[in-house]
Amino acid sequence: MVIQLIKSLFSFFNKKDSFLVVEILPNNEIRTNLVKLDPENREIILKSSFNFYPGIKADYPNFLAFKKNLHKFGKLVNYKIAVGIDSRYASTIYSSVSLVRNNAKDLIDESDLDNLISQAVWKFFDRHRLRVAQKLGVNDFDVLLTDVRIENVRLDGHKVLNPVGFKARTIEIQLCETFISRNLINELKALLPASSIRLISESGSAWSHFLAAGNRGSKFALANISFNQTAMFLAEESRIGHHDGFSWGEKNLLNALVENLALDWETAKTILAVYLQKETSEFFAKKFEKILMGELEALAKSFNASIGKSDIRLVYLHSSFNLPDIVFSQSFRNRIDFPIRLEPLTHSFISDNHNFHLKFNKRADPGIAFGIFVLVLEAIAEPHYEAMKQMSQIAKRRVRWLTPI
User: Fold this and answer.
1) Can you give the pTM of this predicted structure?
2) CATH architecture for segment(s) 216-344
């Protein structure tokens, strides 16, 4: 009996550190990842990943296949769940809302703070709802809030940990809000236990927020490059979120090889893989790079159009495939109209800059780890101060994403 109890307790605490990370990817693939987190030893382990590809209706994720295979993960309530969603289906925005208090001479009390937070949440929602609806391709009535967090608060321009007990004319609340469509909310409600969900976010915004924490106010862009498209995210001053997108990805590089070398699609993929592994002759590599650079010209022009008029000079590149080294060369940067530093985003960024030990089971692919690990770290990120936690809880009570539709 005692041994059985000890085993049960061990299993319980083991599960408490287990994360199920569900990603809806740009190609409509659903990738589900099992991650183990040990905060005390600052260790993260990517145990395994399972992919659910689009079915007949290839323009939408295959939630039916996902649902049929959920039993493989055991009881979902035993996991902490983080959901990262592609930009076509979600918008996560970090920005601020300023409110003016009519009773500026009165001290802010709990009731007043509750009311101010409610105003801020819905003012933020109303401000961004139409733009988000256009981005998601739905009616604004079908744009709903799934998550909200309070990042910080300023009274008359001064940052405070707890507004209660202070007088102020203006209050500025820094918020993070995630918007998704009514249809997607219904899918998630049917699949995942709400009590286990720790994070629902547009993936690129979550990654950008994580990067911003280590950049100390520096402005930057993040380019999330997939098979046939690139989503651009900006972090500048007090705003982080999706900026725009353009058609460019791995498909462009493969098409260039097909057209210039008269190859079929599969052969082009094989040769590109051989080149990326540096297993070609120097002569062939130079010829190959000339072809690729011609296609990379389109990427440079897209960067010019997207962020050329801003003062962004640092761009992080996250891709679903291995980028050729020439993307980071001076030759490519010279094709961009402004001085720019390009940095690859890999899992080593987390270990090098945040002192985490990263481990991978044999079945796990380290190449996909950055985005997965960051979603876990964003899911457990909480304000250091109790008052800020309480304010976020007040805000979350205003978000009823599980309200019956």
Assistant:
1) 0.90
2) 2-Layer Sandwich (3.30)
